[in-house]
Structures are given as structure tokens and as C-alpha cells.
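[job 0412] stage=fold_complex status=start
inputs:
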Amino acid sequence: MQPLPRRLLALPLLLAVALGGCADDSGSGGGVQSVKLSTIRGRGKLVCGVDGKLPGFSFLGPDGTYSGLDADTCRAVAAAVLGDPAKVEFRDLNSSERFAALASGEVDMLARNTTMTLSRDSAGGNGISFGPTTFFDGQGVMVPVASGATTLQDLNGKPICVESGTTTELNLADRMREQGISYTPLKFQTGDQTYAAYLGGRCVAVTSDRSQLAAKRSSFPKPDEHTLLPEVMSKEPLTPASVNGDPAWADAMRWTVFALFQAEELGITKANVAAKVAEAKANTNQADLRRFLGVEGDFGKQLGLPADFVPKTIAAVGNYGEIFERNVGSGSALKLERAQNRLWTQGGLIYSPPFR
Amino acid sequence: MINTLERIPWWRDRRVMPWIVQAVVGLVLLVVISLLVGNLVRNLTGAGLLLSWRWLGQPASFDVAESLIPFDASMPYWRALLVGLVNSLRVIVVGLVGATLLGTAVGMASFSSNGLLRRLARVYVEVIRNIPLLLQLLFWYFVVFLALPNGTAAFQLPGVVVSKSGLYLAWFAQGFSWQGPELVNGVWQAPLRLSVEFTALLTGLITYSGAFIAEVVRGGIASVPLGQWEAATSLGLHWSASMRSVVLPQALRVIVPGLNSQYISLAKNSALAVAVGYVDLYSVSETTLNQTGRALEVFLLLLGSYLIIDLLISAVMNGVNQLVQIRER
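[job 0412] stage=fold_complex status=done
writing structure:
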């Protein structure tokens, strides 16, 4: 027989737990002792779990490089930890194998359009540690324009394609049950199979995060023939994640992402970050800027990162606004609105706690 | 004088030494296993992941596309897993019957006096055997079945309709009235409906296992001495009659042990269902795993289920094997 390799993913997990010694005893106390951080430094590269097939978030282009908001999040963390955004090894994971890959240590972190939920976060559930949300999304439904469907009710009795192992699978069941709509869920293991079945006409609708639907639609042969229903079925905060049980590593990742938000708020861009560092060095009165850019204080050291991790990160990938526009916003094929992903100062939800 | 009563030293005693060796090996094995299990339990307890089965009773809150037993999202996880198991068994049982019939026919055809039939059988076996099953399943589903037309354009034979949404068969409706498929408001209705996912998976499994079974059958028939054929022919039996009454019964004792392993692989291969969207045990387990995070428990259930299914198939086939062996009188 030909076993699916992913079926075996739980076995390394089992073996790792069975054979693993008591390496977890360190890590507490000092605050900057992190098994993961020293592993990454020793290895010289960050292993980052991504989708790999989702335009705008993580997409392996024809030139062999990954692009997208999630891919740039990985690069930002690599720049912060290792000082070089190129020192990332991307690992494509489907939605079913992502948590096993993270828990077994196969990847250091996930930036894989993963929705933060209670059961995924809690120690009694998947037990993973979430960072700051990098994209606030909601679940939508895409239908062919020719089907004439305009509401969920129009899908009564019809087959709907969904990727298995996602929050969308559960939300679909909940919403349909609430509204008393009967339907046939057709579940596939990968996004490719899901959208192939939809395009093959097996389902009259496909459901996923609205950003993902828009991204996939942009890669369809005829994008104009498909439309998103106006209904938003759920909250989908897409959030990078790291392993539970290594708080220092989780903090380093968390504050690297916050630095992207803070940089946009302070108007620090990829282009002007060098000038801003020079300005901060020259002007001792700009205490906030000096601390943020690591000119004074020891924020980097407290996190177990280099003192200049913020300017390194911004110089590598730019601030959050630049990453957004480049990958999913006006500078991309997706042309998504910033909407709730604007800074809090502009009425959005992107907010960094103070660097203090 | 040779003292025959002189005691043999224990390290040369053939009655003692094997026992000691076996005891030592057994002890070492026991120590290794208990170390591993102990470590597993300790680390799982540390991670708060020690085996717990309470989640089995919680509502599954996901739907399944098809089920032979009643199911909805408010029912517990164990019920969802049972739905998956029943769906798996359904495709395995139908697949076993289909693959056996196809394999036997092709295996016999490779001894046919008709050259075209013989060569077709060879081509079928060589093509199917040498292409990975996963590729074949994806081919059947995405290339063949999803390319079928729907509605009025669907392929219609008497009592059978093949369309993109599934296979519709005539069957006994209420009472004993024979009812064929009919088009109601652009949607086919029939007493017996097989989803296109099930049909694609079944087609893939039957054609794939059929090719291997054909080889087992061919080997079995080839093992019957040529003299048996000649004896049957000299009695005036036709090719098909000599095959049926003389050769095949003798070939069975070679065929049956070979069939056993083919049946087991078919059962295991059915777990590839998830690639074509059929809700089998693996598909339901995967959803369950992702919703509950209980990876170890779900995989233990999965491993146990497939182990039991395969052991059952083995036991049945061993029984059949006893029946077809030559009995000395």
C-alpha cells in the first residue's frame, strides 16, 4: 500500500514523547534561556511552517521564492533572531498536519493563516502558543456567478466543498444548523483538492476565510465567474503560533510582530529606517524612538534577541503596512482593503502594546 | 571406562541453554518496552496530554456527507467515528467482492485461447499494477467522474444513470415495485444512490486490487499440472467447463493464501479515501483530531481499528484456506 506520509506525522510525535528525555527542565527562571532560540541559532536558520499555495499569504513562486504576508512574518522573525531574513527554511504544511508538525518540533513556528481559538491555545487542547494576530478575517462562501445564489439559504440541499481540519469546517456546520439549512459537506485534505472539486463542478459553493477565497479566486482561469456571498460567517483572526512550553521563544516572536505594528505607527519604513536610527542616535531627547530602535535600553537582551533587532527587522521586510500593501493590498493582485486591519489610530484593530 | 553419568556443564546443555537465552532476550525486551512506556507516560503527564477518553462523549459538531446510520452534528464523537468505520467497512466489503470477481475473470482470461482477450488481460495487469494507487484514485475522481455531465445530459442506461453527482441505480422501492432513476426538478432521484466519491474510490480500489488478484489467480492456475487440462479435455469437457470443474478447484489451494494479503492491502488502501473526499474512518478521525487535539487517542483508535479489520480478514481467509486444502483420505 502507499501510506500518505502525513498519516505518519503523529508517530514522530509519539516517538519524540517516548524517547525524549527531560530537556524541558531549563527555560524557566532566567527569562532569556530558550531551548528553541538556541536551537535556531545553532542551526543557523529558522524553520517556518507555511501553507505555500495561498497567493498573498504564502506562495511558492516560479522563481522558487516564497512571497506573502505569512512568508514575510517568517522573514521578520528570522531577521530579528538571526539578523538575516534569508535564513528561513519554509515548510509547506496542510491544515491537518500543521499542529502535529509544530508540537513535534519539526517547525519552529507557524505562519500559516491559522485561526486563533480557545481549544487550539489551551493546554488541554492543541496546546500551542499564539502571537499577535496579523490578519483579521472572517469566513465567507464563494459561488459561481451563474448559480444565481445570493444567500446561504440558496444553498439548501446542495454540496459544499470545505478543507478538512479547519475552523471553517465547524463554523459551516454551526451556521447551517442555526439556519436550518441541510447541505452535504465534501471534505478534502488539501486546498488544491478542495478547489479542484469546486472548479470541477462537484460543489455549488466552497467555504473558507474570505481572504483565502479572494486569493484562490485570483488564481482561477476565469476569476470573474465567481463571487463571494456577502455573509460573514465567523471571526477568523489569523495568527502566527509557536510551541507551548517555551515562553522566551514565544515572547521573542510576539514582540518581533509587535515591532512591525509599532514601526508603522511611528512612520518607520524599510526606506527610512537607517535615517531614523541615525536620527535617534543624534537626538538624545527622542527616548521612545531610541528605546524602540535599540539605541538605548536593553529590550533586545530581555527578549534574548540582539539589541538592534527592530531596525534589522524593518530593514528586511518593512513595517506592517508595507507588508500588507505589498502582499494582499493595493500593491498585489488581491487588492484587499485594509478594513479592520488598519492601525488602531485609524479605527482598525492592529495595535501594539508599548515598547517600554 | 566412560562415565556416562558425568554431568554435562549447563552452558553446553541443550535442554538448559535455549531457555536461558530466551529468558534473557525476553527480559531485555521487557525492560526496553517498560522504559519506553514509562517515559511516554511521564512526558505525556508533564505535557498534560495523558490519555483521556472523555472527549468521545462530547458533541462532534461537524457534519458528514454520507452515512448509513443516522447522524447529525449534535451527536457525540464516538458516533461520528462509528459513521466513519461503517463507511470504511462498506467500501472494503464491496471492494473485496468486486476485486475478487474482476481479478478471477482477468486471471482466467490470461489462459484463454482467444489471443486478444489474453493480451488485453496482460495490458490491464501491467498498466494498473505499475501506477501508484493514489494517482489512480485522483485520476478516477478528478479526471473521469468530475468530468461527467449532470442533469438531463447524464449518461443513461436502463436502470442506471451516471452523472457528476453520483451513480443512480434501479432497486426495489416500497414493497416489491422495481423503480428506476428519474429526474425530478433537474435532480436525479433513485432508490439506490451511490455518491460520486464512493464510486470513484470503489472503482480505483477494485481495478487496482483486481490486477494483483488476477496475478494470484494466474499463478494458481499455472500451478495445476498440464496433465489435468489434458485429462479434462480427453473427457470431452469444453475449455470453460474444464476450468470450472477441474482446474480452478485445484488452483484454489494455491490462490487462497495469496488472496489473503491482497485483501488486507485493499482494506488498508481504503484509507486513501480522504484524497477523493469520501468520509471514511480516516477522514472522520482527521477532523476529530483537529477539533479535539487528542492526537494519541485518535491514532490509537485508528491503528486499533485497522488492525482488527485486517486480523478479521486474515482469520476468515485462514478458515477458507482450511476448507480448500486437499483432504487425505
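[job 0412] summary: Chain B touches chain A through 50 residues (CB under 8 Å).
[job 0412] exit 0
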